[in-house]
Design goal:
Layout lengths: L6 H8 L3 E5 L4 H5 L1 H21 L5 H15 L2 H9 L2 H4 L2 H22 L8 E5 L3 E3 L2 E10 L8 E8 L6 E7 L2 E2 H14 L5 H11 L4
Parallel strand pairs: 1-2
Antiparallel strand pairs: 2-4, 3-4, 4-5, 5-6, 6-7
Helix pairs in contact: 1-7, 3-4, 4-7, 5-7, 5-8, 7-9
Length: 212
Amino acid sequence: MPNRRHLIGGLAALLPAMTWLTATAPAAAAEDDALAQATQFIRDSGNRLAALAHDSPSPEEKNRRLQSFLDEVVDVDGVARFCLGRFWRTATPGQQQDYLHLFRQVLLNSVSARVNDYPQGQMQVTISPPVRNGSTIEVPTIVARAGGNGGTPARVTWMLGTDTGRLRIIDIVAEGMSLRLTQRSDYISFLARNDNNLDTLLRALRQQLGAG
């Protein structure tokens, strides 16, 4: 079974608990519309997920809203392809379609399972000025317990891509660890232990979803 650590598991663990602040940005960054939009995107995404986490619709409606949220703020298909690495290129069209479908369901289940775990306002996030790194915009944040109580603040960087024509999250780097690289390592290690058989990974994802 692939390790259940996941990009969106990290997203779900962080966002609902956060109160979002913005650090003062240099004038040059403030004048760059794309960078300003990236900051606003991260703040708005956190507020939206927090609202979803603490709303009380039926489970079916909550999942529908969460899926819509994920489709809007995360490049799900791009992350899925990245996590599969070289095996995406060698997969058949049928395997690719099956994998993308399963990946999306695993992400949704991960968010649904964890989105209520953290009381609203428990954490405080300071958003630092974003920076460009090629085609990616990095939005650094510092995450600390509200009121300054408990533990050393953590550095979390939100990686935003624009390959889909608009800003979307493509990775979260927490204390130097890329969550999508961690997930890809999990998948590749699993495949290496199973004769690089992609169908075995697909079966494991189905089992993880409780579908056989």
